């Protein structure tokens, strides 16, 4: 049909780029619409667990990521109240499908790696969808600049405030009551941290220190905001002091505080953590009439498992595989069946991840005396193993 794009992907985040690259590997052309003027690398870095590396290997870029990022040997969870290690979990173990592999990957490096593998012109920047209409079997996409596009297949990878998810009728994500801030510190002469994940849990917050390479360290901090926080969210300087004050009041080692003191932070100093209700994922439409969602548009989740970005990469591989088979078999006529197959494969995986992330976060940050006692005596090790177990998953090849 003249003037109609076969596959349009809304959003050049991890899910969007993974889907586009997977389709490219399958010989299927797509167009990626990104609302910003450049790739958005907010968040600095994210934990890339075993399941994500299996997806990256399927896309053909796993070794390029490994080359620049440290392989973790263990996870250590400390009590913020006592300063003592509440749990130590080796990350050098065998999973159901092979050895575990966990690294903290710089977000901009990963996005640029995926982009560089795509044909030139695949991504159209400053292109934001504001409304969607149906025109027979075709989707009419109204853009922010007043132009329109037509697409046979529309994949919504447009984040937690997804226009595509809204069109599908999925309810808005729920506020968890927690917020997060993060940063990246550079150590040109080396930082001295071992290749391990350090977590500090309790006192109403959860903080992590994660070396990405020999010279860079990522950190994150999540907490329950309150009026006592004052104007902490007004500026980078005030947020940094807020975080440091909270950590200094707890039993946090000096080297972890130094990471925050010397780090670069985003202008968006904090963000509320939201998730999509697991019940809405049971009942809701993940796909309909040649339209589907992936990544945060599909399953926004709280960050305690470190699985948001990993699951987005899984989505991209599965979706590209399903659509690739459909287009090889005869084009867009079988695309709706392909999207239904994708939704069937991904629905319960997403529900498990969203649910587990919320429960782990609640236990890690609860100030309830009983939960605090159980966390420091018994639960920290269990929660750490849940994180590892959730990563023991293979989304398959393209």
Mean pLDDT: 92
The percentage of residues in β strands lies in 25-35%
- Compute the gyration radius: what is it? 21 Å
CATH class of the domain at 5-65 and 107-174 and 274-369: Alpha Beta
CATH topology of the domain at 5-65 and 107-174 and 274-369: FAD/NAD(P)-binding domain
Examine the secondary-structure arrangement and name the CATH architecture of the domain at 5-65 and 107-174 and 274-369: 3-Layer(bba) Sandwich
How would you characterize the largest beta sheet?
8 strands, mixed
Q: In one word, what is the shape?
A: globular
Give the CA-CA distance, first to last residue. Answer: 27 Å
State the helicity in percent bands. 25-40%
Q: Which structural class should the secondary elements be placed in?
A: alpha+beta
Record field, number of beta strands: 20
Ranges with pLDDT <50 over ≥5 residues? none
What does this molecule look like?
This protein is an alpha+beta fold. The protein has a domain at 5-65 and 107-174 and 274-369: FAD/NAD(P)-binding domain. Helices cover 36% and strands 26% of the residues. The protein contains eleven helices and 20 strands. It has helices at residues 14-25, 50-59, 62-66, 107-116, 163-168, 236-248, 254-261, 278-283, 308-328, 335-365, 369-391, and strands at residues 5-10, 31-33, 45-48, 74-79, 85-90, 94-95, 98-99, 103-106, 123-124, 129-135, 138-143, 148-156, 174-186, 196-202, 205-211, 216-223, 264-265, 271-275, 287-288, 291-293. The strands form four sheets. Strands 1, 2, 9, 10, 11, 12, 19 and 20 form an eight-stranded mixed β-sheet that branches. Strands 4, 5, 13, 14, 15, 16, 17 and 18 form an eight-stranded mixed β-sheet that branches. A hairpin with a 2-residue loop joins β19 and β20 (291-293). α1 packs parallel to α9 (308-328), α2 runs parallel beside α9 and α10 runs antiparallel to α11. The chain starts with a strand and ends in a 7-residue tail after the last helix. The mean pLDDT is 92. InterPro entries: FAD-bd, FAD/NAD-bd_sf, MOase. Residues 6-356 form the FAD-binding domain. Belongs to the 3-hydroxybenzoate 6-hydroxylase family. Keywords: Monooxygenase, Oxidoreductase. GO terms for molecular function: FAD binding; monooxygenase activity.
